[in-house]
Write a structure and sequence with these properties.
With about 260 residues, chain A is of the alpha/beta class. Chain A has eight helices and nine strands. In chain A, about 40% of the residues lie in helices and about 20% in strands. Chain B is built from eight helices and ten strands. Chain B starts with 17 loop residues before the first strand and ends with a helix. Classes of the chains: A alpha/beta (about 260), B alpha/beta (about 300).
Chain lengths: ~260, ~300
């Protein structure tokens, strides 16, 4: 049986195709102005890679901020629900799943079946999400993908006002004027973000094992800072940005079985 | 009013730096001349007082170096007065950069100074002061002497601060000194933007512009959201009349009018700083600091 999970995020749409409970392929597209169209593209790309047609798919589940306008979707699942499912599928001992995306960060507490027990979310403030790193990379005139490797070179972090993207930008500019080394500024950016995320998680409690997913999990600079702040080593799967889509595809598999009964 | 979009190469966020000497006021060597220097995150203000009465002031943009900004603001306040720094009997530094005011005899928090300054500008009936600065918002409860009773502060977030407004002025390409009036040019007040985070609100505003909203309407929706935030802060500290607004945004009519609507009370009218003999609520902190300087000087003389 084939199922598809679609995660319509604020920056990208991610798609995972499951064949009999195993990941068969992935696809993605930039959300742009028309996330529904982007989802179509990503689904077609992923199906093509898996040598499948639309009609071969038993069930589609959508998640992500634009899930309500997802094409093909038979139903939707909350982003927290999808995170929990994916986290336990990837790491069976996972009980806390942290998902840091472009514009939102959340942490989900779950049981051994991947059922969500509790969650916290930050969606009101850009300082705890991926756009914070993007804005600081722009201010530093460093490519986004170079921020992590740069930060890992630093022994210490520069002092910046990390509570707000807008204030952080001004601070980074004045640190550059003061000729503060760029690695130390980059590390300060990640430390600041890790600070915000970890204080959010502490409202939930840190239950090991801790898994980090979402696009920002690809950033080794952030992972290093988060490990230091949390005092645990978080586990990062391959393709962490596809966790939401994976969770949706797993949900689709369960729901497809239920409807078949 | 000039059409903003035709002004090329304009820095929309840039507000007017100016200095003023009150007409018809003279100083003599017998007078107690004191100064307050308020180094804010965005603007540096210095005020000079003769026997506790406002005499002159200067407002400049804070640069990357706080001590230099303090000196620049004080020099600006001294300009055209015939006074030199050495003539000042006592100087109090305040504001975000108060510890970096090199010529200050003492540093006092901006909360105490704004309270004192508001009492000086509007008189003893003031009980609640909303100070909207470049990098924070404070709601301060004061007594009839201008002493702080309690306060609440938001300093972790740019939403509603002067810095946040500058970002919007740039985004919408409207000079900062016009955004208040322009935000009021809507027939019907739109719903506030849903996200107060400046970074997210910027994205939301761009989406609204693409949807065909006018700049006035987008600005109204943003200003509304910021006013709601400020009104909430005032409600949390407890609103007691009279209410006044100090700081740079006291000049933003869009903010002031909306706060009045939301809270259902009128603020005491701000003096029109463009008039030659009017005080400027943006300088409230520096006035307060200069008054503290006078009190501290008097105390030192008695001792």
């Amino acid at each position: 049986m084939n199922t598809v999970g679609m995660d319509l995020g604020t920056q990208r749409v991610k798609v995972v195709v499951l064949k009999d409970g195993e990941i068969a392929s992935r696809g993605q597209a930039l959300s742009g102005f028309d996330p529904a169209k982007a989802a179509e593209q990503a689904v077609n790309e992923a199906l093509k890679k898996a040598n499948l047609k639309l009609s071969d798919v038993a069930y589609f589940v959508a998640t992500g901020s634009a899930m309500d306008i997802a094409p093909y979707a038979n139903s939707t699942v909350s982003m927290m629900g999808a995170d929990a499912k994916a986290g336990v599928f990837l790491f069976p001992k996972a009980r806390t799943i942290i998902d840091v995306g472009a514009e939102e960060a959340r942490a989900v507490k779950c049981d051994e079946k991947g059922i969500m027990v509790d969650f916290v979310v930050n969606e009101r403030c850009a300082a705890g999400a991926g756009v914070f790193i993007e804005a600081m990379a722009r201010a530093l005139e460093v490519k986004l993908e170079d921020m992590g490797p740069l930060a890992l070179k630093a022994e210490r972090a520069s002092p910046i006002n990390a509570s707000c993207v807008i204030f952080g930008e001004s601070d980074v500019v004045s640190l550059i004027h003061r000729q503060e080394p760029k690695p130390e500024i980059a590390r300060a950016v990640f430390d600041a973000m890790a600070d915000r995320i970890s204080s959010m998680i502490h409202r939930l409690g840190v239950n090991p094992d801790v898994v980090l997913v979402g696009g920002v999990a690809k950033d080794e600079g952030f992972v290093a800072s988060l490990n230091r702040k949390l005092g645990v080593n978080v586990m990062v799967p391959d393709y962490p940005d596809y966790a939401g889509a994976l969770g949706a595809a797993l949900t689709a598999a369960t729901r497809a079985k239920e409807t078949q009964k | 009013m000039k059409e903003p979009s035709t002004v090329k190469g304009l820095e929309y966020w840039r507000w007017q730096e100016y200095h003023r000497v009150m007409p018809n006021k003279k100083w003599t060597n017998k007078d107690i001349i004191t100064a307050g220097v308020d180094v804010g995150s965005v603007g540096s203000k210095a005020a000079i007082m003769i026997n506790g009465e406002a005499y002159s002031w200067g407002i400049t943009r804070t640069g990357s170096n706080s001590p230099e900004s303090a000196i620049k603001a004080l020099d600006y306040a001294l300009e055209g007065t015939g006074l030199k720094v050495g003539d000042l009997k006592y100087i109090v530094g305040t504001g975000y950069g108060r510890v970096n005011v090199p010529m200050a005899n003492k540093a006092i928090t901006e909360i105490a100074c704004h309270a004192k300054g508001a009492n000086y500008i509007w008189g003893p009936s003031v009980r609640t002061v909303l100070d909207v600065g470049g990098q924070d918002i404070k709601a301060i409860r004061i007594d009839e002497t201008g002493r702080v009773v309690s306060f609440l502060m938001n300093d972790k977030c740019a939403a509603g601060t002067g810095r946040g407004m500058e970002v919007f002025a740039d985004l919408l390409q409207i000079p900062i000194e016009e955004i208040g009036d322009i935000s009021l040019k809507v027939e019907k007040e739109p719903e506030p933007v849903s996200c107060t985070c400046v970074a997210f609100a910027k994205t939301e505003a761009m989406g609204l512009l693409r949807k065909g909203w006018s700049r006035e309407k987008v600005l109204a929706a943003y200003t509304r959201a910021m006013a709601v935030r400020m009104a909430n802060l005032i409600n949390r500290v407890g609103l007691e009349r009279e209410l006044v607004i100090t700081g740079g945004q006291s000049k933003n009519k869009g903010i002031v009018t909306r706060i009045e609507t939301i809270l259902g009370v009128k603020t005491l009218p701000s003096p029109n700083w463009r008039e030659a003999n009017s005080l400027d609520p943006m300088v409230a902190g520096a006035f307060g600091a200069a008054l503290f300087a006078k009190a501290l000087y008097d105390k030192a003389q008695k001792a």
